Amino acid sequence: xxxxxxxxxxxxxxxxxxxxxxxxxxxxxxxxxxxxxxxxxxxxxxxxxxxxxxxxxxxxxxxxxxxxxxxxxxxxxxxxxxxxxxxxxxxxxxxxxxxxxxxxxxxxxxxxxxxxxxxxxxxxxxxxxxxxxxxxxxxxxxxxxxxxxxxxxxxxxxxxxxxxxxxxxxxxxxxxxxxxxxxxxxxxxxxxxxxxxxxxxxxxxxxxxxxxxxxxxxxxxxxxxxxxxxxxxxxxxxxxxxxxxxxxxxxxxxxxxxxxxxxxxxxxxxxxxxxxxxxxxxxxxxxxxxxxxxxxxxxxxxxxxxxxxxxxxxxxxxxxxxxxxxxxxxxxxxxxxxxxxxxxxxxxxxxxxxxxxxxxxxxxxxxxxxxxxxxxxxxxxxxxxxxxxxxxxxxxxxxxxxxxxxxxxxxxxxxxxxxxxxxxxxxxxxxxxxxxxxxxxxxxxxxxxxxxxxxxxxxxxxxxxxxxxxxxxxxxxxxxxxxxxxxxxxxxxxxxxxxxxxxxxxxxxxxxxxxxxxxxxxxxxxxxxxxxxxxxxxxxxxxxxxxxxxxxxxxxxxxxxxxxxx
Length: 566
What we know:
Blueprint: H1 2-8, E1 13-15, E2 21-23, H2 26-33, E3 58-63, H3 79-91, E4 96-99, E5 103-104, E6 120-124, H4 135-138, H5 142-149, H6 164-180, H7 191-206, H8 222-227, H9 230-253, E7 260-265, H10 274-278, E8 288-291, E9 301-305, H11 310-315, H12 319-329, E10 334-337, E11 345-349, E12 359-362, H13 365-379, E13 382-385, H14 393-401, E14 406-409, E15 430-433, H15 442-447, H16 449-457, H17 464-484, H18 494-507, E16 512-515, H19 517-520, H20 547-552, H21 554-563
Parallel strand pairs: 3-4, 3-16, 4-7, 7-10, 10-13, 14-15, 15-16
Antiparallel strand pairs: 1-2, 5-6, 8-9, 8-11, 11-12
Helix pairs in contact: 3-9, 5-6, 7-9, 12-13
């Protein structure tokens, strides 16, 4: 079995972060091998560019687009809000805007909130459409416009949680009115869009999980195309065309930036969703990806996502992977690859097993990277790899050799003893930030909100007293490095400490430095609390200011002026 596993890239053991060997249950290895074909994946003939050009040295903002609401959007930040923020940022000298994944999510009600569990990574979430910018709205008769306008949800307070279900029901009704009033479908959709629109139309009838559909509909086929209502297929194809147009307008707003808009690529897909239906020949069936047990997640992690099947992907010359990258790069100046170590290996959990009962499956990393770099060079884009946490040394080394930027986050940039590193010791080949969507905000860290939130959600890993003691030690360690850099005084307020954190970032040699409005505005709750579902309002926390007030806020301008000195 060991030889067969090695030939297929299926691990029989792995090494923990503490260099402890863990042997995989042979039954798990057999189960994973059973998900692959009898022949190992052919080695790559991909070729491609060896490395990206040197990324520019610049700064910018990291956004959760849904939270960047304006008085003109319908309760959730949209593509027009992204364009408006980007124009403002460019006017202050910013060179990059990193946004959360814009992928299409499952077409169910209520609409899923997480952008990291997409139905499709190639197509876009129409939740982000600006209704008033649609050509059909602008051309509509006054009576129809009034009917559409009446559907707009009442404005909530700036602090109110985002209601994805309510917003999408209102937008969908408005979009259907405009489409039915004469939005001609135009040309026949190209095959990939046809299949996505067919899946979405069938999902409205049979549910979002294609694995539970009638047997004859469980793959793209003449039967499936015939069963999907033609009008709904045309509607969903039209939505994607309009999404592409509005995303292109946002990308155009970034035309003068050093980098522009950096889109985020989720690590996997919903196994019952659109991509898993349309691309099932190259998507592993049954296995879910996640992470093995570690000090923070002793039971391991099951993300419930499907991933590429390496043997079939290689046999198809990586066509689906290349198409995905090419589509995203059409409207982006850069790409952040979530869990970039997944280009080397992913933790597969076979059917019927728990998160800890998986093993690593290796990919042809040379091929995956060749294609990624080639497509980025073709698009003139930069690439950022999310390499936080435990990654093999080869990942960090290879990213540097390929001029792919890594990720440097203040909370994680420490020495072997746990002390925060001074800015001069941060890596140059990286994008620097204070936090991420999965970590405490600046104000939240100082206030211990990450302890309070996890305690309230019931996901603390140990006694609350120990958590509070660690939080106090970490705050003291942060103040030590800020004090050593001459950035704080003994009586500095939390707001002054947050400013000092940004000043520390500005001193690093990192190629790109990003600020988050959540940090700048003193928001204490983080966008997402890992390990929770309904216990915490994940992905539903908006910025406390509407867009016009946000870009006029003195604190935002202060950080822009600070970073623009780089």
